[in-house]
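Margin note from the TA: students keep mixing up input and output lines. Inputs are the sequences; the output is the structure of the whole complex. Example:
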Amino acid sequence: MLSTTEQQEILRRRTFAIISHPDAGKTTLTEKLLLYGGAIHVAGAVKSNKIRKTATSDWMEIEKQRGISVATSVMGFDYCPTFRNEAGQTYHINILDTPGHQDFAEDTFRTLTAVDSVIIVIDAAKGVETQTRRLMQVCRMRKTPVMVFINKMDREGKDPFDLLDEVEAELGIKVRPLSWPINSGQRFKGVYNIFQQTLDLYQPDKTHVTESIQFSDVTDPQIAQLVGDSDAAKLQEDLEMIKGVYDPFNIDSYLAGNLAPVFFGSALNTFGVKELLECFVHIAPSPRPVAAIEREVKPMEDKFTGFCFKIHANMDPNHRSCIAFFRICSGKFERNTYYTHVRKQQQMRFSSPTCFMAQRKETVDEAFAGDIVGLPDTGNFKIGDTLTAGENLHFKGLPSFSPEMFKYIENADPMKQKQLDKGVNQLMDEGVAQLFVSQLNGRKIIGTVGQLQFEVIQYRLEHEYQAKCRWESLQMYKACWIEAVPDSDTAADIKAAEEELQMFKRRKPQYMAFDKDGRDVFMADSAYVLQMAQLDYKHIRFHFTSEG
Ligand code: G4P
C-alpha cells in the first residue's frame, strides 16, 4: 500500500499539455503559467521549441532547437491557488510541451497519450485552425478533458459568441464560458470571471504578474464607473444570455471529455491567465487510470508502472545516448531500483533518472504517478515500451497515424548498408517517422507528416550513423491499417470476413506493405483507389490510425 503522504502526492498532480495551431500563443501561455507558479520570475525565459521556418535550410539551427526542446519538454512547478484554498493545498503541475511545427504533429499526438488533460489555445482573431482540429481529434478519441483559452483579446477578434459556436462546431465538443470579455482590441477592458464571480480590469503588462481589481457582483454600480455605462450594461446582457444559452458548468461532463470550459484573455499581457490556472487546478483531473491490454492500471496502485511516450536523441553524435521519457501510470518510481523492461524481459535500474522543475533538469530519487521521468538510454527503449515492478503489462493507445507524405528510401553508399539499416530502425523506434516495407518487392517506404522530417532523417543518418540515403518520390495518398469485420460473431461470418481480407491482399499485392510491427497496411495511391476498395470490400475496415 502507498502511504497517505504518497497518495496525496499523486492526488495533487496535474499533468497536462497545451496545444494550439502554431502562433496562437502556446509558448507565451506556458511562460505565463510558469510565471504564476513562481517557476520563473521574468518573461522571456522560456524558449520556444518551434522549429522556425528558416530551419529547413539551417541544420545547426534545427539541432540547436532540438536541444532546446529537451530542456523544455516537461516543465514542473508547484502552485498554491488563492481561490477557495483555505487549507493552503499546493498542486504539482507538469506541463508537457509539444512541438509547434506541424511536421512534428506525430510527436504531439504521442505526448497527448501521457497527459491527463489539455488546454487548447485559440487565437481570437483566427478562430479554430487546422492543427487545432487535428489535435482535438486525438483528445476526442481518448476522451481527454479539455479547457479552451481564447487568446489575444487585446487585438480585434471575432465576436465571442461566434467563437464559442465555432469551437463547438469545429472541435465537436460542447462549451461553457467560465469567463467573459468586455470588448476586444483597443476597447478591451477586462474579463468577468464567471467561475469566481469577480471582475478583472485589463492592465497590460508583458513581464510581471499584476493583481487585478476585483468585484463580487456584476451589478455593482462601480463597474459602470470603471468600464462605462454601455459596456457594463452589455456585460450584464451577455451574462444573462450565457445563462440562457448554456447549461451551468458541469464538472463531470468536463472530466468525461464532453464539455470544455472556456476562458478569455491575453497571454502576452499576462491577462486572464491566473483565472485559467486557478480554475484549472480545481477542476482538472489528478492522474487518471491508464488502459493496458491486460487490465486498467490505477494511479494509486502501490506497484510502479510506466510507459515510454517519447525518445529524445542526444545531439552529440559521438555519444549516441538518448533520454527516454516515461509517464508514470501507477505507484512510485525509485532511483536505483530494479524494474522489468517488459518487451525485453530484462531487469533494469536507473542511477540518474531526471525530473523537470521549471527550467532545470534534476536527478530525482523518487517520482509519482502522473510525473514524467527522463531515463538516460543507450538504445534499449522504443516508444510504447513498458516498465513495471514485475508484471507483464502492455499499455494501449500509442497510436500511429496515417502519414501524409511518402518516399522510397534508397541507400546512397553501398558500403554502408548496415549503418543505414541500423539508423533507419533506430530513428523509427524513436518515432521520427514510420517505416513501411512493400510486400511486393521489399522496398522500404518512409511515411512522414511533413517534408521537414525527410530532411531531419537524412541529416541524422549522415551525422549520427555515417549512412547516406537518397529519396525517391512515390505517388501515395494514404496508408491504412486493414482489419476483417464480420457481420456477426458466428464462425461462418468470421471465416467469410477473413477470406475476404485474404482475397483483397492477393488481388492488390502492389498496394500491400507491412508496418514496423508486421501488420498489414494498404497503401492507396489515390483517394479514388481507397474509395473503391471501401465500396468493394464491405467486410474490411480501413483504419487511419493504428493502436500500436
Ligand atoms: P505558439 O507557441 O503557439 O506558436 O505561439 P507563441 O506563444 O510563440 O506566440 C505567437 C505570437 O503571438 C508571438 O509573436 C507572441 O508574442 C504573440 N502573442 C501571444 N499571445 C498574445 C496576446 O495575448 N496578444 C498579442 N497581441 N500577441 C500575442 P511573434 O511576433 O511571432 O513572436 P515574438 O517575436 O513576439 O516572440
